[in-house]
Prior knowledge:
Helix content: 10-25%
Largest sheet: 6 strands, mixed, barrel
Shape: elongated
Signal peptide: 1-24
Number of strands: 27
Keywords: Aspartyl protease, Disulfide bond, Glycoprotein, Hydrolase, Protease, Signal, Zymogen
Strand content: 25-35%
Structural class: alpha+beta
Number of helices: 8
Radius of gyration: 23 Å
GO molecular function, one term: aspartic-type endopeptidase activity
Distance between the termini: 42 Å
Strand order of the largest sheet: 3-4-9-5-8-7
Domain Peptidase A1: 85-507
InterPro entries: Aspartic_peptidase_A1 (IPR001461), Aspartic_peptidase_AS (IPR001969), PEPTIDASE_A1 (IPR033121), Peptidase_aspartic_dom_sf (IPR021109), SapB_1 (IPR007856), SapB_2 (IPR008138), Saposin-like (IPR011001), SaposinB_dom (IPR008139)
Amino acid sequence: MGTGYGACLAALCLLLFLSPLVFSVSNDGLVRVGIKKRKLDQTNQVFGGIDSNGVHSARKYHLGGNVGDSDTDIIALKNYLDAQYFGEISIGSPPQKFTVIFDTGSSNLWVPSAKCHFHLLVISTRNTSQVTPVPTKRMVEGTSAAIHYGTGSISGYFSNDNVKVGDLVVKDQDFIEATREPGITFLAAKFDGILGLGFQEISVGKAVPVWYNMVNQGLVKQSVFSFWFNRNAEEEEGGELVFGGVDPKHFKGEHTYVPVTHKGYWQFDMGDVLVDGETTGFCSGGCSAIADSGTSLLAGPTTIITQINHAIGASGVVSQECKSVVSEYGKTILDLLESKAAPQQICSQIGLCSRDGGRDVSMIIESVVDKHNEASNGVHDEMCRVCEMAVVWMQNQLRRNETADRIFDYMNKLCDRLPSPMGESAVNCNSLASMPNVSFTVGDKTFELTPQQYVLKVGEAPVTQCISGFTALDVPPPRGPLWILGDVFMGRYHTVFDSEKMRVGFAEAA
């Protein structure tokens, strides 16, 4: 079923030139998609937006409920700070080319429709009904669809056609034609759409993802795909996405594999987070993480991100609520910790949280996940979440046998490092040599990032800006605390997605 699409898609950043893309299928049976990258400069950067509730919207996940066609079905569009990685596909006959982001953090394929409101060129190959019949096992053409993002949304209808990726032709692929793309940020993009590589469980309409059809139609020799991102800013080549296996030229040594723990995103268990070899004290009992090729930064709980940004000298916005909790309740919290009180109950004991163990430190920005949470009661919730952060920070300092004065001084410095309302924190470009390494424990191995790898440089000298690669995102239990290991991490570590053995693997990128 052919479709018409205009080049009218949108995104969260303004970007520079994208060169033509190259695909190849070699005699080793692997299908390679050449990826180009677009780097931001200072005049073209858009770090994200604020939604109607004033919540930073760089990343918003829908982590609960059923995923279908209703307005509650949310798959996040990411905010790309350092570089965006793009490939080219074609749809229909005659084939129409589209530049897409290959995104392991979502599962739908969608491109602009000929009916898109902001298109400049329309080539329609076939008309498609706008009726909304009851979906069958395969999506019925014309079935309405909507995907909501932190800075806007897209809506349209399902279509079906052949999709060409490299030399592979995926037959009868369901995808969304976007007819409406509200929001000013959706006017800025240079890419056309998204090709989701996540699991069907988070696919809007339960549409079968492109990768599933590649496997089911016997187009690849192994149910494995892998990413290599080129993080060398001086080189034009963006990297390579390999379908059907791995290219040994892309990595060194052996991969460390961990099982997928929750189908939807490529989610797995992650261990401790270390700054300069020392534990941050939050994930020592384990956290969850996802490998997400569509996110530029590395996102995690505000509690740890604040500690990391303090350690690397990143500057955010002073939180008055944070300093107020330290000033008014710091001594009481410290006394309770020293008396071996249950840490998860301390904030309710002093009246800042509503019930014992009813919240988790990760619930720092509830509305990042559900901005319509009517259970939230404003200032009280803010003080509660800050108190929970303070408990973790103090615990960590007590383990080091620090004095009360040094602990309170450290706490106030952490308050100063809380992320800005837009989520980014800046560092001094001349201080990289003195910054600590930050490490993540996955499986039985520690994966280290140096300052040169986690700091993103935007613009050219002498006005280069350096941005911390760590940004805050808080996901409540049972799905959280959750880390999103985006391009900052995947650029350093070649990543394998194995859907046959349900595992994710990391090895040092070559």
